[in-house]
Amino acid sequence: MENAKCCYPGSSLAEFDPLPLSTSFSRTLELQSATQKYKGIELEEYVRKQVSRFVIQLNVLACYLGEVCTYSSCPQMTATKDVLYLCAAHEVAKECCAIDYISHCLDGATSLLTSEDVMSHSSLGKNQEVNLQPFRVIMRRLYRLFAHAYFHHIDTFKRFEQETELFDHFCTFATSFNLISSADMLVPIDFASVKGNSVDSGNGGGGQG
């Protein structure tokens, strides 16, 4: 696992996709440039590609958590002691042990990102209204993986973040594109590093599921 940062798909920007995504949003003007450059359907496609990247990278965090997160240690998917997440992978949302929730969440995100409901809109033409709501749902659920890791497996969280800086990138991206509400972001973070104006393209996040 020590070399995970260099081994998983997307760890090299050149090999993943042609759209710009800095390895450190908070230290460059690239994300600010993207919020200004991409409009309409191009913005929707840009966000989709970057959310897809986060799903790939979070599979690595899942591997890290697999070393310490078990049914016995984490029979529920929780963040703080007052926050319990129900798994939406079932016909009726219900409790799952944390490691199963994580697996279901990543599988569900992959399914949504490749479904016609998300993909077909981008083929309708540049005059169509941008809809980032499916990505808000995905990002809100993906954030919960970080939250669980932070509050229950802090050593694993710190080790992963030191190697990848993924949580920093994820939060900066989510904030810049209004993909997660502040109420859903439970892990302490310094948002002073987030540069540029947010992109207002629809309703904010929030809610359960």
UniProtKB/TrEMBL annotation:
<dbReference type="InterPro" id="IPR036703">
    <property type="entry name" value="MOB_kinase_act_sf"/>
</dbReference>
<protein>
    <recommendedName>
        <fullName>Mob1/phocein family protein</fullName>
    </recommendedName>
</protein>
<dbReference type="InterPro" id="IPR005301">
    <property type="entry name" value="MOB_kinase_act_fam"/>
</dbReference>
<dbReference type="Pfam" id="PF03637">
    <property type="entry name" value="Mob1_phocein"/>
</dbReference>
